[in-house]
Design brief:
This is EAL domain-containing protein. It comes from Metabacillus hrfriensis. The chain is α/β, with parallel strands linked by helices. The chain has four domains: 5-241, no CATH class; 259-366, PAS domain (Beta-Lactamase, 2-Layer Sandwich); 377-531, Alpha-Beta Plaits (2-Layer Sandwich); 557-793, EAL domain (TIM Barrel, Alpha-Beta Barrel). α4 packs across α5 (138-163) and α13 packs antiparallel against α14 (422-439). The longest helix has 46 residues, at 213-258. The radius of gyration is 56 Å and the shape is rod-shaped. The structure holds ligand C2E and magnesium ion (MG) (2 copies).
């Protein structure tokens, strides 16, 4: 019956077909297990029907290859059922092998299922198809059954191993799988022949009695090999895996021990199980000491709660925070700032402990702190800066607690900076900040906002005392500071605004404090003031005056009045003070006390004083031409003008262009003007004096002057401030001061004049104290030049 030539092709086809279907089984399983759960049911049906078809085709080709005639009445129904059984076997193989870590029971059940499928398709199938050829050979049937079962289990095992842990894709595994596929496939191809031989009247090959045993022997041998393949395969894989594990372990060890960061491993309770050297060095304990300790003992107490929470979160697997920033306590009480990043140790799907990577961030934290410090502090004075101040203001605003803002401006700082340079200015600022810090209450916040702008926040209790504090500050700055051997007077003007009384808006508060500060400056500086809504109007008024003054200078709306000065009695006019007057078309006479500070602030003072100098010179020229001599005419020179480079040149030009004598002129300089730069002031004053101009120190007694200081100044006369004269009669104290000033002047061989003398009593008292020169309403008010020349033409006025 066996015809090699005719059937060889079909049998080869059976082999190839069988190898292909065997080979595809793990591939299909792999496709199936990679699909998401929702897609798996659909894909398994397609894969099972395809694989089932391949199995069935093997079976069909095997039947065709033996040329037996069917006796079954409905072979098609049989083929349909056998295709269904093949698909079922494919279904179970794919599903079972797709389950990770298959239990022994499932393995057994699937193995039996596969065996049953093979038995059904082969034994029952042949019995149905070829009923007339049935010839039961019990011993062979038993062999055939055993071989089928053995094949099923070995094939399943190989399949499982091939699929395990993705080995399918490894190169070495692929060789075994290919070998397994070929041998398993051939073995599978042999099973129909074994079955046929055992249940049908069918001889595998003609001639010889024992040829029927060939397929048995063939399948048996292949099965034997198939049984070994998984073992060989597993063995190789195991070796490879253990190599890989060793390598991994070594890598892990070197990661653990040579990590630049500390690594600590703990059990589930947080008890340390191992540490690396870096971690031991951080804690200043030995590895031995550390093992067995709770990790908490290494952390500073104040961080315990935070650390425990983090640990429990890590164990739970919830990572609300990735890192833990804590301080470790060192052995000697010092601390170390660290950042811990922890991960769970998971072995066989179970959490067994925690790894913590500990990074020493002490230095970077210090650097960070320094960056933060610099971001919020002024480098020069070390005080909080504007950014800090603004942040603090909004914080306080949110807190809704009352507080006060004090804005400070240092009246002559800009001059000092211009005169002596920025390095000197910096020293002044440092001194200012030190002085402020020493005066301020403890809980106040002092900031340098920039330049000479300082601001103070007074909180709650201190807020009530804002005026007191401001007064204290102003008072302290009335004394000069020693900077590079120079006495430096930098008086301050302070504006105060209250939260929430004046505004709830921090920007507005700052503005109001500034307005209050400007108001103080407008009223002569060196004082403090609390914001009042009217001040807004004042500021507007100030801006208006500035504009109007500009126009007044341009259109020559200013004039100069003269106030006579006398010696001993009203009969002897020894000179006059030139005082600027401004009669505004709408506002009438505006006091110099109002517009002179604005002129100084805006720089209009130079033009204004050049105008006064010119006016005085032209009158003096006219008087000299008429042979009138009213003595020296004094002109007030602002401290700003004194330091102007061209002052001497301007005066020289005026003297020469009006052809007047220097002995007709006197300059009045204030005490504080001298203090900006004593050397420069003295040098200039000496030059002017050498020309024949006299110098008086105006408003004497209101500034800071010591005897030693006065000694160094190049001046001719002290002009006692009118505030002392005014109350001389009532207050003995004032008399004493005036007397002291007079004797000081005598001692220094300086002339002395009193201003603001209004009564004869004052005049007589002054004469008694030794001051014979006087100026004031007693002698006459400031009047226009023509009136002045007419009135004093005779040069006398009886008293
Ligand atoms: P000052 O230089 O101390 O001038 C004296 C001031 O006292 C003048 O005020 C004068 O009118 C006033 N006065 C004179 N005698 C009496 C008196 O018996 N009783 C009272 N109560 N006051 C008297 P005035 O003209 O209002 O000037 C105020 C200040 O404005 C001056 O004080 C001076 O510092 C400044 N000033 C006036 N003209 C000029 C100027 O051309 N240049 C500069 N830089 N400042 C000027
Ligand atoms: Mg004066
Ligand atoms: Mg004066």
């Amino acid at each position: 019956m066996f015809n090699l030539n005719e059937d060889l092709f079909l049998m080869l086809l059976v082999l190839v077909q069988s190898v292909i279907s065997y080979h595809l089984t793990p591939v299909f399983t792999n496709i199936y297990s990679r699909k998401t759960q929702d897609k798996q049911p659909k894909i398994i049906i397609i894969l099972s029907l395809t694989l089932g078809f391949l199995f069935w085709l093997t079976h069909l080709l095997a039947i065709l290859s033996v040329h037996l005639k069917y006796t079954a009445e409905q072979p098609y129904l049989y083929f349909l059922i056998s295709y269904a059984v093949c698909s079922l076997v494919a279904f179970f193989s794919i599903r079972t092998c797709g389950i990770p870590h298959l239990s022994s029971k499932s393995y057994f059940v699937t193995g039996c299922g596969m065996s049953l499928g093979i038995v059904f398709v082969n034994f029952i199938g042949y019995a149905i198809l070829f009923q007339d050829k049935i010839e039961v050979k019990p011993l062979l049937i038993l062999f055939a059954l055993l071989l089928s079962a053995a094949f099923s289990f070995s094939a399943l095992r190989l399949l499982l191993i091939a699929l395990e842990d993705g080995l399918l894709n490894q190169r070495r595994a692929k060789y075994y799988r290919t070998a397994g596929s070929i041998i398993g496939g051939i073995s599978l191809a042999g099973i129909p022949y074994v079955t046929m031989t055992s249940v049908l009247d069918y001889q595998f090959a003609d001639g010889g009695h024992d040829y029927y045993l060939i397929p048995f022997l063939f399948v048996f041998l292949l099965n034997l090999i198939l049984t070994f393949i998984p073992d060989l395969y597993s063995h190789t894989m195991m070796n490879e895996q253990s190599e890989r594990i060793n390598e991994k372990e070594e890598r892990f060890r070197s990661l653990f021990h040579h990590s630049p960061d500390g690594v600590i491993s703990t059990d589930m309770k947080g008890v340390i199980t191992s540490v690396n050297k870096v971690a031991a060095a951080m804690t200043q304990l030995t590895e031995k000491d550390l093992i067995g300790l709770s990790f908490l003992t290494l952390i500073k107490e104040e961080d315990h709660q935070k650390a425990l929470f983090y640990f429990s979160e890590i164990v739970k697997g919830s990572f609300s925070e990735n890192e833990l920033s804590v301080s470790l306590r060192g052995k000697n009480g010092d601390s170390l700032d660290v950042l811990i990043t922890a991960v769970r140790q998971v072995v066989n799907h179970k959490v067994v402990g925690v790894y913590g990577v500990v990074k020493d961030i002490t230095e970077s934290k210090k650097a960070q702190n320094r960056i933060n410090y610099l971001a919020f502090h002024d480098e020069l004075t070390g005080l909080p800066n504007r950014r800090y101040f603004i942040q603090k203001l909004s914080e306080l605003k949110r807190g809704n607690q009352p507080f006060a803002i004090l804005n400070l401006d240092f009246d002559r700082f800009k001059r000092l900076n211009d005169l002596f340079g920025h390095a000197f200015g910096d020293l002044v600022l440092v001194k200012i900040s030190e002085r402020l810090t020493s005066v301020l209450p403890e809980r106040s916040i002092l900031s340098r906002l920039g330049g000479d702008e300082f601001s103070i926040i007074l909180l709650e209790d201190e807020m009530e005392k804002a005026n007191e504090t401001a007064n204290d500050i102003v008072h302290h700055f009335r004394f000069p500071m020693k900077i590079r051997e120079n006495d430096c007077l930098v008086t301050t003007s302070i504006g105060i605004a209250h939260f929430p009384a004046h505004s709830r808006d921090s920007e507005m508060l700052m503005k109001y404090a500034d307005i209050a500060m400007y108001d103080v400056k407008m009223n002569g500086s060196n004082s403090y003031g609390i914001y009042k809504p009217e001040m807004n109007d004042k500021l507007i008024e100030k801006i208006r005056i500035e504009n109007e003054l500009r126009k007044a200078l341009q259109y020559k709306e200013l004039s100069v009045y003269f106030q006579p000065k006398f010696k001993e009695n009203l009969a002897t006019v020894i000179g006059a003070e030139a005082l600027v007057r401004w009669k505004h078309a709408e506002l009438g006479f505006i006091s110099p006390a109002t517009f002179i500070p604005i002129a100084e602030e805006t720089g209009l003072i130079f033009e204004l004083e050049r105008f006064v100098l010119g006016e005085v010179a032209s009158h003096v020229q006219a008087w000299e031409r008429q042979n009138l001599n009213f003595g020296r005419i004094s002109i007030n020179i602002s401290h700003l003008h004194l330091y102007q480079d061209d002052l001497i040149k301007t005066i020289d030009e005026i003297l020469s262009s009006y052809q007047i004598h220097a002995s007709s002129l006197e300059l009045e300089i204030t005490e504080t003007a001298m203090m900006d730069n004593e050397l420069e002031a003295n040098m200039k004053l000496s030059i002017l004096r050498s020309r024949g101009i006299e110098i008086s120190m105006d408003d004497f007694g209101t500034g800071y002057s010591s005897l030693s200081y006065l000694q160094k100044l190049s001046i001719d006369r002290l002009k006692i401030d009118q505030s002392f004269i005014r109350e001389m009669e009532q207050h003995n104290g004032n008399e004493a001061i005036v007397s002291m000033i007079i004797s000081m002047a005598n001692h220094l061989e300086l002339k002395v004049i009193a201003e603001g003398v209004e009564t004869k009593t004052q005049k007589d008292l002054l004469a008694k104290l030794g001051c014979l020169e006087f100026q004031g309403y007693l002698g006459g008010k400031p009047i226009p030049a023509e009136e002045f020349s007419d009135m004093y033409l005779s040069g006398s006025k009886a008293v």
